[in-house]
From TrEMBL:
<protein>
    <submittedName>
        <fullName>Putative metal-dependent hydrolase with TIM-barrel fold protein</fullName>
    </submittedName>
</protein>
<dbReference type="InterPro" id="IPR001130">
    <property type="entry name" value="TatD-like"/>
</dbReference>
<dbReference type="Pfam" id="PF01026">
    <property type="entry name" value="TatD_DNase"/>
</dbReference>
<dbReference type="InterPro" id="IPR032466">
    <property type="entry name" value="Metal_Hydrolase"/>
</dbReference>
<dbReference type="InterPro" id="IPR012022">
    <property type="entry name" value="UCP005295"/>
</dbReference>
<keyword id="KW-0378">Hydrolase</keyword>
<dbReference type="GO" id="GO:0016788">
    <property type="term" value="F:hydrolase activity, acting on ester bonds"/>
</dbReference>
<comment type="similarity">
    <text>Belongs to the metallo-dependent hydrolases superfamily.</text>
</comment>
<dbReference type="GO" id="GO:0046872">
    <property type="term" value="F:metal ion binding"/>
</dbReference>
<keyword id="KW-0479">Metal-binding</keyword>
């Protein structure tokens, strides 16, 4: 089982997580820029954070055999804070950097006028920089927020096949599938989506344009939820090729639209077969 986790906030995780992820088959990931849990008060706090995403965190992941990429944006929650709006002026500098594979997370938190404006501006940046877009859907009134998201994407002129609409559930998946956009699902211990519900969605809607992530962050979350979803797929009758498509090929195809993915094995790492809950995966070993 090889895994590309397309949405995980490793700045909030430990080196033990990196080791466990590699052992479970994770070889590459995308870390989206997100809210840190408390308000940022200046543009400088953003630039320090963005610098860490494209520098330190990429280096830290490499020490454990994992290729790190990121997305850059002003996140929806902080779009409502006037102190944060100036960060829009520095985003183009970061969107041109190596390892930045999309504009994101953008979208809605409370569906305010301010969020509308910031979302539209960042969709325009995605067009200008020829980057795909990672969209966050709101945790409240998700169906209405997803409808509004798709309307704004269409009005901005961004092709749906260059957008992944994330944090979906059973109420929103068909809407996004019918739009032609990619469908993102965050697998969580208590909220959002679990691996067994995910298997049923895959059974009902198929594997095309399906993106599964752990979205692990500061809160109660699990960076191995991608691997556990793969195991649940196998237990549910899906093939190893099916698992590879969902956990590797689909996120590679989507973020590959950026032209900036680096997926070759890191120097000094090789692979050896181990068992993960009854199925063969690759475990990292230093040469």
């Amino acid at each position: 089982m090889r895994i590309f986790d397309p949405h995980i906030h490793m700045s909030s995780r430990t080196t033990d997580d990196y080791e466990a992820m590699y052992a479970a088959g994770v070889r590459a990931l995308v870390e989206p820029a997100f809210w840190l849990g408390q308000p940022r008060t200046s543009v400088g706090s953003y630039t320090d954070y963005f610098d860490a995403l494209i520098g330190w965190e990429r280096f830290r992941a490499a020490q454990f055999g994992i290729r790190h990429h990121c997305t850059i944006a002003l996140n929806p929650k902080e779009a409502n804070d006037p102190r944060c709006r100036e960060v829009l002026d520095v985003l183009p500098r970061y969107l041109a950097k190596d390892g930045v594979v999309a504009v994101g997370e953008v979208g809605y938190d409370s569906m305010t006028k301010e969020e509308d404006e910031v979302f539209a501006q960042q969709l325009a940046m995605a067009l200008e920089h020829d980057l795909p877009v990672l969209v966050h859907t709101p945790h409240r009134d998700k169906l209405e927020g997803t409808k509004r998201t798709l309307d704004v994407v269409r009005e901005a002129g961004v092709a749906p096949e260059r957008v992944v609409v994330d944090h979906l559930n059973e109420l929103t998946v068909k809407l996004v599938k019918d739009s032609g956009a990619w469908m993102g699902f965050s697998i969580y211990p208590d909220t959002k989506m679990d691996e067994h519900r995910m298997v049923e969605i895959l059974r009902q809607y198929g594997l095309e344009k399906m993106i599964v992530n752990s979205a692990a962050d500061w809160g109660r979350s699990d960076p191995l939820k991608t691997a556990k979803t793969g195991q649940a797929m196998l237990d549910g009758g899906f093939t190893e090729a099916d698992v590879d498509k969902v956990l590797w090929q689909n996120p590679v195809d989507f973020y590959g639209l950026s032209g900036r993915l680096t997926l070759d094995p890191l120097p000094g790492f090789t692979g050896e077969a181990v068992t993960f809950e009854g199925n063969s995966v690759l475990r990292g070993a230093r040469k």
